[in-house]
Design goal:
By secondary structure, the protein is mostly helical. It is built from seven helices and no strands.
């Protein structure tokens, strides 16, 4: 069952253009999240929470538009957040190695 869920998450995350066509865009949140993972010694937890908050705020214009499906936006926002919170650790670790390389700091392996 978990494998089926992961495939669905992967499919959703790969469909960013379709999400944009629905009237909302998570692209700026994704970009900020990628950058956050590379901030030396910043926890994955902090980055993921900032990401989730950004995703929910990205749905604000949709909530004000009667033609936009705000419930769908919020559900997708949660799905995106959940996907990175559950599966982002390897990417966070990579970002920490790269982000801390300039300063000679070895990031801990904990989140």
């Amino acid at each position: 069952e978990d494998d089926i869920y992961r495939v669905k998450v992967k499919d959703v995350l790969s469909q960013s253009n379709k999400v944009r066509n629905l009237g909302f865009s998570f692209g700026p949140c994704c970009d900020a999240h990628d950058e956050c993972y590379g901030i030396c010694l910043k926890s994955q937890y902090a980055c993921d929470n900032e990401f989730g908050n950004c995703l929910y705020r990205a749905c604000d214009p949709c909530r004000a538009d009667p033609l936009c499906d705000a419930t769908l936006c919020l559900r997708l926002a949660y799905l995106y957040y959940f996907a990175v919170a559950q599966n982002g650790e390897p990417h966070w670790k990579e970002g920490q190695v790269a982000g801390c390389a300039c300063c000679g700091i070895l990031p801990s392996q904990s989140q």
